TrEMBL record:
Coiled coil: none annotated. GO terms for molecular function: N-acylneuraminate cytidylyltransferase activity. CDD domains: CMP-NeuAc_Synthase. It comes from the Bacteria. This is Acylneuraminate cytidylyltransferase. InterPro entries: CMP-NeuNAc_synthase, Cytidylyl_trans, Nucleotide-diphossugar_trans.
Length: 237
């Protein structure tokens, strides 16, 4: 089975300039994800999708392929992932006659996600029943049932009404008494290519949850403070 890991790394970060190749724990940030993907027992090919020649050079240094540079229209800070993946799959089909059986979507901003996480997500993807995708999620501590909204008259009411939750006075309940809630953490997603090409979706309709409950495993790097926190975690691992 051909399982393609795609590490999407746009240049021109606004939050931290040069973020994807900024040093973390003695290596460029993107290197952590490249090395995790290459250490995977399931991934058969590791590609970095970037618009930035400097990121491309660093990616190749750590063993990833960069078969093309991402076109500018798919590399703005507002560009969604879907068109980028549609372009990449079309490029591989046209230029290499290569059609992967599954795509593993990885982001360099999740450096603490390991090869073990990647393989576990792929195993879940391959298990029956079949699915359109697997997405990594983590438990939320601020449960959505406990959120309030304030009306124009200044009075509060539950953001999600009882008619939706089926629970009377849900915001007052203990979190452990509410149904478990999860959020997409972006650390690892596994997708069937036809989900992208035919459903025009990065998730599809049949989505399995890969639950990551380690408090540090899905840390997302967005600010300098996140870099400092990641450095501290790495030193204590």
């Amino acid at each position: 089975m051909n399982i393609l890991a795609v590490i999407q790394a746009r240049g021109g970060s606004k939050s931290v300039p040069g973020k994807n190749i900024r040093e973390l724990g003695g290596k460029p940030l993107i290197a952590w994800t490249i090395l995790a993907a290459k250490a995977s027992k399931k991934v058969t090919r590791v590609v970095v999708n970037t618009d930035d020649p400097e990121i491309a050079a660093v990616a190749k240094q750590f063993g990833a392929e960069v078969p093309f540079l991402r076109p500018a229209e798919f590399a703005t800070d507002k560009a969604p992932s879907l068109p980028m993946y549609e372009h990449a799959l079309a490029w591989f089909a046209e230029h290499e006659n290569y059609r992967p059986d599954a795509i593993v979507q990885l982001k360099p901003t999740n450096p603490l996600r390991t090869a073990g996480h990647i393989d576990a997500a792929i195993d879940l993807f391959l298990a029956t029943p079949p699915c359109d995708s697997v997405i990594s999620v983590s438990p939320v501590h601020d449960h959505p049932y406990k959120i309030w909204k304030v009306g124009a008259d200044g009075f509060m009411e539950p953001f999600l009404p009882e008619s939706f939750t089926g629970i009377k006075d849900a915001p007052r309940m203990r979190r452990q008494d509410l149904p478990p809630a999860f959020r997409h953490n972006g650390a690892v997603n596994v997708i069937v290519p036809i989900t992208i090409l035919e459903q025009h979706s990065m998730n599809g309709k049949k989505v399995k949850a890969f639950v990551m409950d380690g408090p540090d495993d899905f840390l997302n790097i967005d600010t300098l403070r996140d870099f400092e926190l990641a450095e501290l975690i790495l030193k204590n691992r």
